[in-house]
Amino acid sequence: MACVEILAVRTVESHVLQARAKLRAPRHKDIPERLLRIMQGRG
User: Fold this and answer.
1) Which of 5, 11, 29, 39 has its CA 20 to 30 A from that of 20?
2) pLDDT value of residue 43
3) How far is residue 2's CA from residue 42's CA, in Å, rounded to a whole number?
C-alpha cells in the first residue's frame, strides 16, 4: 500500500513565510538564491 502525504495549503504557506523570514528573502522566488549563497559561504 502506497503512503500518501497530504499537506494543507496553509501549512505550506506558513513554512514558506518562515523560510523567507529566516533567509530575509523578499519574495518566495528569492529563497533558492539565498540558500545557494549560504551554502557557498557568501550568506
Assistant:
1) 5
2) 62
3) 41
> Is-contact 28 16, C-beta < 8 A?
yes
Q: Where are the alpha helices (DSSP H) in 1-43?
A: 9-23, 31-39
Q: Is the CB of residue 23 less than 8 Å from the CB of residue 16?
A: no
**Residue pair 7/14 in contact by the 8 Å Cβ criterion:** no
Q: Would you state the cell numbers that stand for residue 17, as one nine-digit string?
A: 513565510
Q: Which residues contact 31 (CB under 8 A, 6 or more apart)?
A: 16, 19, 20, 23, 25
| Grid cell locating 16 | 514558506
pLDDT in tens, the chain (43 residues): 567 788 888 999 999 999 999 999 999 999 999 999 999 987 6
